[in-house]
Amino acid sequence: MKKRDILVSYILLLFVVVMGKAEGRGKEWHGHVTAVTVAPEYRRIGLADGMMKLLEDVSEKMSV
Question: Model's pTM, two decimal places?
Fold first, then answer.
């Protein structure tokens, strides 16, 4: 992950909350999202989609 991507991720965390868990090792690595919430003034601009995509990308890298 590039430094810019990490910075953007931290900025998004101010407006988006993803609650869940990740567990396992190697091929058994998996996660569960319990809730996703976005501050009202930042809804409908794709922030939750972006955070879920980031979570998927990180999970894919962790499962290798």
Answer: 0.63
